[in-house]
Design a protein that fits this description.
Distance between the termini: 20 Å
Low-confidence stretches: none
Mean pLDDT: 98
CATH architecture of the largest domain: 3-Layer(aba) Sandwich
Bound molecules: oxa(dethia)-CoA
Strand content: 15-25%
Radius of gyration: 19 Å
Number of helices: 11
Number of domains: 2
Amino acid sequence: MTTCARIVSTGMAVPDRIVTNEDLRQWMDTSDEWIRQRTGIEQRHWVRPDEPEGASDLGLRAATAALDEAGWDAQDIDLILFATLSPDIEFPGSGCLLQHKLGLETTPAMDIRNQCSGFLYGLATADAWIRAGMARRILLVGAEVHSTGLDISTRGRAVTVIFGDGAGAACIEASPEPGILATRLHAQGEFAGCLMTEAPASRHWPRIDAQMIAEGRHFPHMEGPTVFKHAVRRLPEVAAEVLEAANVSLDDIDIVVPHQANLRINQFVARALKLDESRVVNNIQRYGNTTAASIPIALHEARQDGRIAPGSTVLFLGFGAGFTWGGAVCRF
Ligand code: UT7
């Protein structure tokens, strides 16, 4: 019998500190109106500067919730996949830090550096490992702490207002029934410079210096309109590709869980796919863009409120830095 992989549980965690659009005005020239109109965001969660947490700390909380729901002990995990662009430290990866925090001794842990598509790259990797018989139970985490690395002055406003901190997790298990029906992944490094944090940089000696800091090259840089233009083209394209690979039509999809980069991007995509917006999960209003965490957080909330139930067929879509993008179709 062919072994398939399916998502059996999910969890999420965000810091308890809420930063509203109005709060941002104390540091930068912006407005609630601008942020809501251009992005849909009303608030985001940021770690507390006096008690900062790393990506693996938020990841641990999300993972613990997912493990509880699955009824797994940490010892049951065959592989940890950790997607983040904001690892706790330069190296080793946050997956190793999470592995230790879970009380594990030698369970393998692998970091995935694919930004907003990180969870989808992780899902494809988990599916492949399980199908190949290399693992039966995989913990996949997407977690970000953006707030400790943002330029909160007016210089950084076009980027800073969109990002939030958070983590989402999923337990993925070998199953005789198909769960992950198909995944499709893409990357286009030609556009790496359109959305990046450059320093510390191994191609630079030393990796970071006073001049780089003065120029803000340790903060994220984004050519927003370029990213937007590519996202609204690539997301419908990969949706068609992954639906065909899964051999399902859009009518078979109960709900779409897209990456939460900008509410306007998701509205564009819904229109391009001729989907009523009620069939698209959006929670960017409350969390901002949590990058690798946004898809698993949206998935968790949609499972919690019953929009995703046993038997639901779900289309996942993501696009971001790299550029990277991808899609997945899963049955629950
Ligand atoms: O998840 C990773 C993938 N990321 C994305 O998918 C992001 C895609 N891009 C976007 O979502 C949008 O490009 C943004 C929301 C980032 C920006 O929206 P935009 O409509 O593309 O604005 P813009 O960058 O073209 O800037 C328009 C104006 C500029 O002023 P001028 O030059 O027209 O006078 C900016 O200086 O808005 C100004 N501006 C702001 N004003 C108030 C930029 N940021 C802000 C701000 N508050 N926070």
